[in-house]
Write the structure tokens for this entry.
Amino acid sequence: MLSNRFGTLLVTALAPAVWGTTYLVTTELLPPGRPLLAAVVRALPAGVLLVLLTRRLPHGDWWWRALVLGALNIGAFFALLFVAAYRLPGGVAATVGAVQPLLVAVLASGLLGERLTARSLIAGVAGVAGVSLLVLRAGARLDALGVAAALGGAAVMAAGVVLSKRWTSPAPLLATTGWQLVAGGLLLLPVAFLVEGPPPATLTAANLAGYGYLTLIGAALAYALWFRGIRALSPTHVTFLGLLSPVVATTLGWLVLGQELTVAQIAGAVVVLAALVAAQTQNTRRQAAEKPAAVPHTTA
């Protein structure tokens, strides 16, 4: 049981690790100043592809549930992330966003009946501290609207994670993932057009390669692995894996872009990884009782 859980954790961790490559792909391959276009291209084609592959459409309550989950996990999250990214330095946005595991722990306690442990709370605080050491820079400016957007992004994603666990879809995983990506992409489409205008008239081979990577790997594959992990594990444990994203992004910046890696950043990465491991280390008896089939509330 524990070895299966460990394997599921490792596979699920691939999703935030992939998301950690987004900064590198965006800065090196995509047209500048088009984050919302990147979000639409990342979500909508991937969702359509998964729906076509599975040949499953929502039915009954899952029409509105897919819309809600798609808005929380994809559409609203990306839009708020866009606002935070434009109004805050990246380090501030990432540090504020690192509160998400704490929010998930609290929501899972209220909506799923999970035990809110001191270990989870301490690990969550340590995760925020580690991310701040990893990415925060001295003299970073704060903007009230930007901070609110970053907090809002963490909150809607946290709600999406918990509701994805509460609402267990009878459809295959890839179909449910596709529904959410399509819903989120469709919600983002008019926002991207109004804010950024029409797509560029011409795209280079590098642009196409970057968009292709975000669609197939960053969305279709990564979100399928992420939602698979949520089905199989506690949402609190899964969301702590999201702390891997800034670690991967910082590491790639150092390895590929030649960015400086300071002692403080190394210490931050160690703290993040320690918090992640601490959050996953639980009492054996409690883990033996953690089964996907035991998830309550399959209906509203």
About this structure: The CA atoms of residues 49 and 271 lie 38 Å apart. Confidence is low (pLDDT under 50) at residues 283-300. Residues 2-195+208-291 form one domain. DSSP finds 14 helices and no strands in the chain.
